[in-house]
Amino acid sequence: DELLKVADTLRDRGTVLFDAGSIDDRLREQDCRANVIHVAPTRSMLADGLAQYLVWKRWKRWLLVVGSHDKDKLYADALRRAAARFGAKIVQERTFEDTGGARRTDSGVTLIQHQMPVFTQEAPAYDVLVAADESEVFASYLPYRTWDPRPVAGSAGLVPTSWDASHDQWGAIQIQNRFVKLNSRHMTAMDMQAWTAARMIGEATSRTNSNDPKTVFSFIKGKDFSVAAFKGQRLTLRDWNLQLRQPILLSDGRMVVSVSPQEGFLHQYSELDTLGVDRPETKCKLQ
Length: 287
Description:
Among the domains are: 44-160, Response regulator (Rossmann fold), CATH 3.40.50.2300; 165-246, no CATH class. It is 33% helix and 14% strand. The chain is built from 7 helices and 9 strands. The two termini are 16 Å apart.
């Protein structure tokens, strides 16, 4: 809501905003704005990136566990959409209610060790537990504690993200090392999204040899624009909703396990458009 308010306030001034943080699909769909470029991936892009890998692995039967907060439910919506899109089946859904309290204090580890197996028992046969927990309430407690010995993905275990500190392919180790040297910490997805936004502006400015905002903005939206971001292929902008096309990394917290789009998921224009809302599906009418 704050982003929309700012975008509408500044529209008549010709100001262009770069969204480096929000993953809400509605900002690219029914609430899209013609002066907002989205560098952060959407929930649907993240969910599709994860779903492609799970389906490629033939882990098509999912137990979906959803948190009780609004953003958990939005992520769950994206995961349901991804399952239907790529041929996975959600065999059962369960809700983990956030009742507050500190499970990690006192004998918290013992409580968790008993709580999570009980919470996940008696489920229909499934290949992978997929957690929707953007609020970070329960998902991190699931790996190695499920009743059945199954992998965990989504908000814990195998996590889809735009960037991970362990990513070292396609020259990424160079920017990772530079970032650590400058900031004495590892680079997060938010850091990379902000860097990419600045890189897009610099790339368009140098390619057009202009610092005129309208000229730069028009070039970024055009077919000749692309930007390198250490992800193995050029990133471009979707002209129907101003979302940056980008691969999705799948990380277990120690290494990048895979990168989506996966082999075999084809598209008539760009395989990156198999991630998220495609042109024929969009509800966006830029204004």
